[in-house]
Design a protein that fits this description.
By secondary structure, the protein is α/β, with parallel strands linked by helices. The chain is about 35% helix and about 15% strand. A 14-stranded parallel sheet has the order 1-2-3-4-5-6-7-8-9-10-11-12-13-14, with no helix packed on it.
Length: about 400
């Protein structure tokens, strides 16, 4: 019942008094604030009946148009004991708003595209002693002070940093000393993270099981230290990593036992590195080798023979080169008995009948994602609405 919609909850409220008292905590646990009208209605309800505030545990504002500074203040002044707070795209967010957040109960925090400074951010981190999940996106005013305070956290399990501003330097990362419990680390477009910083982060995050690196100036030397220090990694993403080569893939094959691997948009990788790595990754369940430099049919054949447990496959078609023919893709899919999700980018000759062939040959297939394939029209997805497989076309 916790996942019912608001209309179902409201209907339950009208049954009897006992149902009313059972449903009210569920109704206010995670209010749906997708419009300004819904947000103001929620604020007025809590003002008129302050006892309702104690039931509110999750607030997510990333799905609606940004609130004004005044409306955001009225919302946060309700003194909610939140465990989950998502303030992405709240451009009016500032330090005064963060001071209104009740920190001790907070476990999940996401902020981005706002004007907070070190003072407000560090103050919140000191209050949020139970914080486990933190997502920071495009906060240009944060500097090394925030990174140092962040590094003091002993409770963080998941950290995501996206596009730090010019006020931060590599010194801030090198002053971190916490992260003893960190399990997941995502670093997107952070140009400060070079080989030295990545090596240091790997030494203080030895319990990592998931690491996503996107568009970082890291070379094979940094990857060498990473795979040696973080031997527990099961999920690794290396997207748009322009400076790594086959040497990194060979090291990954030797030192890690991965279940999920992403190599998208990496120009300097070839079949030699991919095949050598896949030969040591027989437990791999998800593989993304889309838009990778010199990858040909040989790498896909290696995935078929070396990774029998593969459930999720993402690859490129033959729109820009003839390396991977569509007929070969169909044969490879049929040879993967566990395949459940398949995605293809930029195919020149993929036809609707080929999709039907995929479904017939792959009995466990549940989802197909088609991106930039010239012969597949978005309207085709409607014909798969009631079928075993869901089709998504972009």
């Amino acid at each position: 019942m916790l996942h019912c919609d608001w209309e179902s909850y409201y209907s339950c409220l009208l049954v009897c008094r006992m149902w009313y008292y059972q449903v009210v905590p569920l109704l206010y646990h995670a209010p749906s604030l997708k419009t300004l009208w819904a947000t103001k209605l929620f604020i007025n309800s809590c003002r008129n009946n302050p006892r309702l505030v104690r039931y509110v545990k999750k607030i997510e504002l990333s799905l609606m148009r940004p609130l004004s500074a005044e409306d955001l203040s009225h919302l946060l002044m309700l003194d909610m004991k939140l465990t989950h707070l998502d303030l992405r795209f709240c451009r009016s967010l500032n330090d005064a708003h963060l001071d209104l957040v009740h920190g001790p109960t907070l476990k999940f925090l996401c902020i981005g595209n706002c004007n907070i400074t070190d003072q407000g951010f560090c103050s919140l981190l000191r209050r949020a002693q139970s914080l486990e999940h933190l997502n920071i996106q495009d906060c240009a005013s944060l500097s090394d002070s925030s990174l140092e305070q962040l590094g003091c956290s002993q409770t963080l399990l998941e950290l995501q940093l996206v596009s730090l501003g010019s006020h931060a330097t590599s010194r801030g990362f090198l002053q971190m000393y916490g992260f003893c419990n960190l399990k997941s680390l995502n670093l997107y477009d952070c140009k400060l993270i070079d080989d030295q910083v990545l090596q240091y982060l790997s030494t203080i995050s030895v319990h990592l099981t998931s690491l996503q690196l996107f568009r970082l100036p890291v070379t094979d030397h940094g990857m060498q230290e990473l795979v040696k220090n973080c031997s527990r990694l099961t999920t690794l993403g290396l997207s748009e990593m322009k400076r790594i080569t086959d040497r990194s893939l060979i090291l990954i094959g030797r030192h890690l036992k991965l279940e999920h691997l992403v190599l998208g948009h990496s120009d300097n990788l070839t079949d030699i590195g991919v095949i050598t790595m896949l030969q040591e990754q027989k437990q791999l369940k998800a593989l993304d080798i889309s838009l990778v430099g010199e990858i040909t049919l040989l790498s896909l054949l290696a995935a078929t023979h070396c990774c029998p447990l593969l459930q999720d496959l993402v690859l490129s078609g033959n729109l820009t080169c003839d390396a991977v023919p569509t007929k070969a893709i169909l044969s490879i899919m049929a040879a993967l008995p566990c395949l459940e999700t398949f995605s293809v980018f930029q195919s020149m000759d993929l036809l609707p009948r080929d999709i039907e062939t995929m479904i017939q040959n792959c009995h466990r297939l549940r989802q197909i994602y088609i991106h930039q394939c010239v012969n597949i029209h978005p309207c085709l997805a409607e014909s798969f609405r009631n079928k075993r497989v869901s089709l998504f076309i972009a």
